[in-house]
Amino acid sequence: MAGQTLFEKIWNQHVVASPEGEPTLLYIDLHLVHEVTSPQAFDGLRLNGRGVRRPDLTLATADHNVPTDPISTPVKDPVSRRQLEALEENCREFNITVFPRGHENQGIVHIIGPELGVTQPGMTIVCGDSHTSTHGAFGALAFGIGTSEVEHVLATQTLPQQKAQTMSVTVRGKAPSGVSAKDIVLAIVGRLGTGGGAGHVLEYRGEAITDLSMEGRMTVCNMSIEAGARAGLVAVDDKTIDYLRGRPGVPEGEAFERLAEHWRSYVSDKDAVYDREIVIEASELVPYVTWGTNPAQVVALDGVVPSPNEFDDPDERNASERSLDYMGLAPGEPIRSIPVDVVFIGSCTNARIEDLRAAAVVARGQRVAPGVRALVVPGSHRVKRQAEEEGLDEIFLAAGFEWREPGCSMCLGMNPDQLGQGQRSASTSNRNFEGRQGRGGRTHLVSPVIAAATAILGHFASPEDVNG
Amino acid sequence: MKPVRVIEGRAVPLERSDVDTDQIIPSDWLKRVERTGFGRGLFSEWRDDPSFVLNDQRYVGANILVAGPRFGTGSSREHAVWALMDYGFAAVVAPSFGDIFRNNSSKQGLVIVQLAQEDVDELTRLVKEDSTRLVIVDVDQMQVEVPQVDWHRSFALDPMIRERLLYGWDDIGLTMRREASITSFEERSTAPTLEGVFDGAGHVIAR
User: Fold this and answer.
1) Cβ of B92: how many Cβ atoms within 10 Å?
2) Interchain contact, A118 vs B194, CB within 8 Å
3) pLDDT attached to residue A2
4) What is the DSSP letter of A113?
5) A290: exposed, middle or buried (Cβ count in 10 Å: 0-12, 13-18, 19+)
6) Interchain pair A194, B32: CB under 8 A
7) B1/A contact by beta carbon, under 8 A
8) pLDDT at residue A1 greater than cutoff 70
9) CB burial readout A322-346, b (16+ within 10 A) else e
10) Fewer CB within 10 Å: C terminus or N terminus of chain B?
11) Torsion over CA of B43, B46, B52 and B58, rounded to 10 degrees?
């Protein structure tokens, strides 16, 4: 019998029931909750006289809606305010730990799970948010769900699930210097397309992946959904264990070391068979920028805006024409010649301490280009405090960046941080969809270092361009 | 969830690929705590454009949406399904769908009809040719039909999803039949809990 993949190991350990002709009932070890996709679920519970089965496996935080202004400023939008209040009220009523705006542990849901050590290898983790795939970096099976499923997990701590297929995504060899985790995942999404991962759980493998820090692995797993995949995974190794040691959610001393030994089993067996396998040569990777309105529309920073004629598939050709029109770009324009209005460094993709450190190295001693608004939004209060201890806030402020309070911020146009009509951004977030960052806004996805360099030069640029 | 057996009505062709859930319902609408009233936000970035197909008088009242490949990718927002249904759509026909969107649809009774690209193209042509043509989505028989031109295609439905659509079953109720299995799983489970990690105010308890 062939060995098991990491996905199969976790799946098999969480089967509650697999009745004939029905989906498998899967147990959920950790349910993360935020204000946007939960109010209707809590309402459903009340309507049906149901409770929350396991408040001790449920953790909530405010993130999507929170303004990133100083905490002392009230939430001006009454609809947002109501939703934030509803989260607190619901969590109080159902006895769930919640981190409201301004709480010392508050932050983007996919940043706080790992940093608090409540995200652990071998777990099943869900959240009403498609970027839940982030937690897969720890060898946990983590995926996004809709509000009906949020209600289902609150009530039963389980989910009926069809077993996904597995895909091995190997990034072979060492990534060249200057290529970040974001560039690796943009290359993968570009290669697979927005639907290429549908129905699959991706397992990222290869030296370029294992070389990444936990932060980098989270960036890669985060964007699995942009290739249409259910989830992304990276096998457990020393880095996983070292990252978790000493975090609040894990035990101390002997008990931790015993747990860590168990975690080491969350790797695919050598003879495991995947349903699909793809290989990407790390040596061919470069820094990337998206040019269009879906995250698979990727081009090298050194490249030019592509022409619709380059696409054989009529659908892709049509889509690219529409994208270029929306983005206000012409085929053949060099990417470096495109000016930006706004730079956003933040989001569940790239707002961890390492991302901020990398951007700060580029920003140190420089000035943001005239007319460019540049925002740095730490992913959580813990990240913010850590960055301030390291003096990163001062580097950014001295260079003319805004240093803001934690939240999802400009990743999605749900809070006051938004692009205006026709404004163009370089953004470290995960989606360049039409209107994603604000109605009529034009988003280009990049890594933190490209974002920082772009802020300083006012057009797409690399750190080398800044240091000229 | 209300039972759905046969949907009869007219179809509107969207003719766009990669329509993600941000396009179906922009995030500004996600601030609401209610479950109803999202129809006004459906495709709201495009609704101001008079040439957008939903503004075409010929398709007013259509209850079947014919879309391009990769419909409903991206964000997990179930609001996308609520918006489509609140607007009046009962089924979406497309060559492929986002996984989470497909799941969410099945919980609300929005029927997902996946057909080959050429069949979707044909259906698009048929309803563009004559917008008044009756289109039928038969969940029971798993068929889409345009009776006027004797056009019909079969589609696949997960047997469990089909049953749930036909009988309007509530997912949570179905799972609760497995209460004994869930409890016995929990007795065996060694997974950590949050107990002892945070105090009542969410602060980390010092060790």
Assistant:
1) 27
2) yes
3) 81
4) H
5) buried
6) no
7) no
8) no
9) bbbebbebeeeeebbebebbbbbbb
10) C
11) 40
Q: Is B16 near chain A, with CB under 8 Å?
A: yes
Cβ–Cβ < 8 Å for A3, A272? yes
- DSSP labels, B97-138: B-HHHHHHHHHHTPEEEE--HHHHHHHHHHHHH-TT--EEEE
Contact A237, A138 (CB under 8 A): no
Nearest to B31 among A83, A129, A293 (CB): A83
Residues of chain B with C-beta less than 8 angstroms from the C-beta of A103 = 202
Residue B146's H or E segment, with its range, is strand B143-146
3-state secondary structure of A204: strand
Asked whether B21 and B99 are in contact (CB, 8 A), the reply is no
**Is residue A148 very low, low, confident or very high in pLDDT (cuts 50, 70, 90)?**
very high
Which residues of chain A does B18 touch, with a Cβ-Cβ cutoff of 8 Å?
Answer: 194, 293-294, 319
- CB contact under 8 Å between B172 and A412, yes or no, is no
pLDDT digits (tens, 9 = 90+) for A435-468: 999 999 999 999 999 999 999 999 999 999 998 7
Any A CB within 8 A of B180 CB = no
Record: contact A157-B182, CB cut-off 8 A: yes
Question: Mapping DSSP to helix (H, G, I), strand (E, B) and coil, where does residue B207 land?
Answer: coil
Shortest Cα distance, chain B CAs vs residue A465, angstroms: 33
Chain A residues within 8 A of B74 when measuring between CB atoms = 130, 225-226, 431, 433
Amino acid making up residue A135: H
Mean pLDDT of A382-403: 98
Contact B185 A146 (CB under 8 A): no
pLDDT digits (tens, 9 = 90+) for A164-191: 999 999 999 999 999 999 999 999 999 9
Q: What is the pLDDT of residues B152-172, one digit of tens each?
A: 999 999 999 999 999 999 899
**Does the distance separating the beta carbons of A248 and B204 come in below 8 Å?**
yes
Q: Is the pLDDT of residue A327 over 90?
A: yes
Angle at B149 between CA B148 and CA B152, to 5 degrees: 100
A27/B207 CB distance under 8 A: no
d(CA A183, CA A188) in angstroms, rounded, equals: 9
Q: Write out pLDDT tens, residues A110-123.
A: 999 999 999 999 99
- Is residue A253 a contact partner of residue A411, using CB atoms and an 8 Å limit? no
Q: How far apart are CA A167 and CA A274, in angstroms?
A: 6
Identify any residues that bridge with A290 across adjacent strands, giving them in sequence order: A298
> Is the model's pLDDT at B192 over the cut of 70?
yes
Within 10 angstroms of residue A313's Cβ, the number of other Cβ atoms is: 12
Residue B48 to residue A28: CA distance in whole angstroms: 43
Quote the pLDDT of residue A71: 95
Contact present, B65 and A121 (Cβ < 8 Å) = no
Q: Are A27 and A16 in contact (CB under 8 A)?
A: yes
Q: Which of A56, A92, A132, A147 to mutate to test the interface with B (most CBs of B within 10 A)?
A: A147
Tokens of A110: 């996919």
Could you give the CA distance from residue A436 to residue A323 in angstroms, rounded to a whole number?
13
Rounded to 5 degrees, φ, ψ at A373 are -95, 125
Maximum CA pair distance of chain A?
Answer: 65
Q: What is the mean pLDDT of residues B24-43?
A: 95
